[in-house]
Give the backbone structure.
Amino acid sequence: MRWSWLLMLTAFLGLSGCGAINNMMYKTTGDVMVGFAEQHTVPYVLSSDDLGMNCAMSEAMTPLLMSFGQVTKNPDELGVMMDLSAGNCEEQKAWKYEFRYMKALRAQQPEEAQDAMIVEKRHYIVAAKRYYRAWKHLNARYGDVGDSSCPSFDNDQSEFIYMMGLLAGLEALNSEIQSTSDNTGVPQNIAAKVARASGCLDDDKWWGVPMALRATVWAMLPGSQPQGEDAFQRLAAADKKGEDARVRLADVLHAIAAWNQNKTAMVKDIIRRHAKDVSRVPPDPKWAMVDQLATLNLQAVSDRLWIEHTGHRTPIGGLGTFWDDKKPSSGEVIDLNSIM
């Protein structure tokens, strides 16, 4: 009897030791992988202009990297970037069905239009949830964003991630609105929090984006614009800072604000100017992904306008041109007779 108890105790201690060793190995592995992703993968991705590759990486790797939060410190800053990127990937899928819906309406195909609209909204629901997860990661890292004093940042990358978290908050709200769903969990006061928190960032350092975030909120929320301010003047000034820095993210926020107020002529001018500047001046290599993402979003706005008026998207090479331009479009011209 005495020997049996000794064997059981030995086995128990052995198993406990294996568990401790495994936990130590998991924690070490997690620390290494998360640290590598934060220090090397994020900067590498931000310097790339391959948005498709970025989508594939964020959707595939987010569960793995974030799961290490169960055995080591939760990688919330990394989570901001991963979920923001994954949210944008899902939003791009929503665009595809939005365009399909618009073309079905033009073709007087109501069943096809309704089906496309349903799928579009499903994608927007997923996008809203992903963007909102990014916002929650930001709050887990920095406390109640927009409701407390400004945080202290470890380095420039932390400031950048903070700004991207604010952008994720606005994107979460916008995606929920587009989904027409109220079950995403996105609180309606995110926009006001983003506006307040954007004051924690240096506007000149970050390409005019902090001011553009505030001005976009002013344009979106009636009564939120401070006395003596003009949201669209501020947005135009932010655009200029982005152009000078060769990171033109503010252009997107300007276009969104103008679109929401049905300022179509302004939207077209923003797209024309952005396309001209991109063709003339390459992006800052360190932030190529951010600049390319701005162009992608403006191309989606351009596509909406083109489909609405012509039934097809922006012609290849035609970003910045429109169907009603006086001069011939510089985009690709397809001979329909050759494909009939």
